[in-house]
Specification:
DNA-binding; 2 domains; Arc Repressor Mutant, subunit A; homotetramer; Tetracycline Repressor, domain 2
Amino acid sequence: MPAKAPAQGRPRLAEVDTRIVDAALIEMKDKGLTNLTLEAVAARAGVGRPTIYRRYSNKEELIRAVLTDKVPKLSLTETSDVVDDLVSMAVTFADQLNKSGLLSVAIAAHAEARHNPVMADVLKTDYLLPRSQSVVGAIERALASKQFVQVEPATVRDLLFGPLIYRLLVVGEEVSPFGLRTLAETALSGIRTPGGK
Amino acid sequence: MPAKAPAQGRPRLAEVDTRIVDAALIEMKDKGLTNLTLEAVAARAGVGRPTIYRRYSNKEELIRAVLTDKVPKLSLTETSDVVDDLVSMAVTFADQLNKSGLLSVAIAAHAEARHNPVMADVLKTDYLLPRSQSVVGAIERALASKQFVQVEPATVRDLLFGPLIYRLLVVGEEVSPFGLRTLAETALSGIRTPGGK
Amino acid sequence: MPAKAPAQGRPRLAEVDTRIVDAALIEMKDKGLTNLTLEAVAARAGVGRPTIYRRYSNKEELIRAVLTDKVPKLSLTETSDVVDDLVSMAVTFADQLNKSGLLSVAIAAHAEARHNPVMADVLKTDYLLPRSQSVVGAIERALASKQFVQVEPATVRDLLFGPLIYRLLVVGEEVSPFGLRTLAETALSGIRTPGGK
Amino acid sequence: MPAKAPAQGRPRLAEVDTRIVDAALIEMKDKGLTNLTLEAVAARAGVGRPTIYRRYSNKEELIRAVLTDKVPKLSLTETSDVVDDLVSMAVTFADQLNKSGLLSVAIAAHAEARHNPVMADVLKTDYLLPRSQSVVGAIERALASKQFVQVEPATVRDLLFGPLIYRLLVVGEEVSPFGLRTLAETALSGIRTPGGK
DNA sequence: ACTTAAGCGAGACGGTACGTCTGGTCTTAAG
DNA sequence: CTTAAGACCAGACGTACCGTCTCGCTTAAGT
C-alpha cells in the first residue's frame, strides 16, 4: 500500500499505482531483488523516479507493496476433511507462489530480513501476519478434532510448508502440483492419529 | 576457490586469500548479500580492491568461494541406527549453518540463482553437489535397510531438511538444537516402517 | 562551454558550472595538466564526480572549458601608433597568461595537441581562432599603413609572440612587464620601416 | 643516464638500456607525456617494469634520460660569419627537434616543470645547461665582434629561438627549414649593427 | 471561473560503489 | 646481483544507481 496522498491538490492517478507495482513485479522476476533498480522499474512503468518515491519512501517499501499486493492469499476451502483442507491450502499457495515468480522474491526477503530490521518488519506485518490467521485457525481446528497427535501448531506449520518450499527452492521450476500434494501428505502422515480418517 | 595464479612471477600470498574470504563472510553476515560491497570487504581485509578482482572476477565468484570454504560439511557419523545418523547430520548441519550466519547467505544465493545462471551454477557445483554425496548415500542405506517405507530419496531429503530450514528461516535466531532434532524426527516418523527399531 | 543541458527537467545550476571551472583552474595551476585529477576538482568544487561528467565528457573537454573561459582575451587599444598597439596587446596578453598560471596549461595543451586530435581541435577552435581575429586585424592594419616592411603576417605574429612566450616559459616566473615590452619592441624593430614614426 | 649499477653480481645488459630509452621515445611521440605509461614502455621494450625502475627511480628520470640521450646536440659550425653560425645552429636544432618528435616532449616538460620541481631540475641540468654552453659562447662572440648592437645575451637567445619554437608549436608539422631560416634571420635583423656584413 | 495545492515526467544534484587501469614496490625462480 | 613475470596497496578513471531536489506543465477541488 502506498503512502497516502494529501487531501488537497490533484489526486494521484490510481493507474500509476498499479503500473508501478506491476513493473516492479516484472523487474523482480527478471533481475532478482539484488539487481532490482528503481530506475528500471520507473522506466518500465513509464513513470518518473520521484513518482515512485512519492508513494514508497524506499526500495523496501516498494517490495513490501509487491509482496502485499501480489503474493496469493491463502484460500481455505472448508470441507469435512480438515487435514485435506490444510494440504490443499499449502499446496495451492506454494504452487501459485512458485508460478508467479514470487517465491524467490519472498525467500530473498526472508534472507534479507536477517540483516535488515525494516525488511523483517515488512515480512512480519504484511506477509506472515495476515496469512497466519487462516493457517493457525485451520491447524487448531485439526488439533481440536484429534486429527493430529498432540504437537505444537508451529510443528504442523513447518511440516506442511517446509518440504514444499524447500523442494521448490532447491529443485527449480518444474515441480507438478501433484508431486507437491504427495509430499505434503507424506510430511503430515507422521503426526496423524491412527484412527483418523 | 580463487582463480588460479599463473606459474611465473611472484606467487600470491595465501594469507591474502584467507583474509579476503574471512572479511567477506563477516560483511555478508553484517550487511546481507544485497548490501555487500567489495569496497568494504577490501577495507576489512586490508587489501586493495584489484587484489580481490585478481582472484574473483566478480561478486558472485567471491560468494561462491565463501560458500565453498565456509559452509559446514555434512558430517555423517555411522552408527547402528541409520535414521538417527540422518537426523543427526541434518540437525547438525542446519544448526551450524544458522549459527555461522551463513543460512541467510545460502538462502539468498538460492533465491538469486533463480534469476542468475552464474549463481545457479555456483550453487549446483560448489554447494549442493559436494554435499549431496553424503546425504544420498545415507538415505539409500536407510532405504536399503528397510527403515523407511518405499519413497523417493528426494522425498526423504525434503522431509529432512525442509522443516529445519523453514523454521530457522521464518522464526529467526533462537531455535534450540533439541527443538530441531524433535522436528526432524517428527518429519521422518511418517515414512518409517512400523517394525523399524 | 559545457555540453548543453536538455530543455526538459531540472535546469543545471549555473553556479555549479563556475565552481567546477574555477576549481579546475586552481588544480591545474597547482598540479599541472599531467597530475590533474577530476576527483580533486570535484572535491574542491564541492561537487560529485558525475556532475562534472554530465557537463564534460572527459578531461579534455574540461580543459577546453578552462582555456575558453579563463585565458585572457586580446584587448586591443587602438591609438595612432599601430605598432605600439600590437606590442601592448602582446605584452599584456603574455603577462596575464603568465600571472594567471595558465601559460603552462596553454603550452601543455599545445604539446598534447601533437598526439591528441581532440586537443588539437580544442585549441584551434576555442583558443586560437577567437584570438587570431584581433591579431590578424591589427597586423594587417600595420602592414597597410606601411609601418612594416613587406612580410608575411604570420612572421609578424611569430616575432611578436615567440620571444615573449619563450622567455616566460624558459626563464620561469619573474619577468617584468617592462622587460617583456622591450623584448617585443626589439623583435619587431627588424621589420619596421626606417621612416616609420 | 640510468642510475649506476652496483659493481658486484651480474652486470646489467647494455642492450636493455637502449631498448628502454628507444621504447620510451616511441611511446612519448605516440601518446604524449600525459598518457605515457611505463607499462607500455616496458611492453614495447620487452622488459619487466621493475627493470625500468631499477634504472630510473620514476617517470621523470626516464624522461630525463630520453631528453638527454635523444635531443639533438647544438652543432656549431664556426665560419667567418658569426651571425650565420648562430642562425644555422638554431634552425638545425629546431628542425631536428621537430622532426624527431621531441619538440612536444620538450615543451611539455617545460610546462610540467612549472609545477614539478623535479622536472624543473631535469630540464635545467640535463637539457638547458649542456646546450647553453654553445649558445652563450656563440652569442658572446657575436657581441664581441660588434655584429649586434648592445643587448643582453638573453635577448639574442629569445629572439633566435622564440619565433622558431613558437611557429613549430603553433602551426604544426609542415614548416620548411628554409622558412625557419628566414624567420630567424628576420628576428635577428633588428639587432644587427648597420655596418655588419 | 479562478485560484491553489498537488501530481506528473524529466532530469540535475551530491554520494557511493562498481570493475578497470596505472604507479611504484616487493617477491619469486632462473640465470 | 640481474632478469622477466607478476602480486601487492593505493588511488584515479568513467559509469550506474541511489534518494532528493527543482523545473514546467497538468489536473482536480474549493472558493
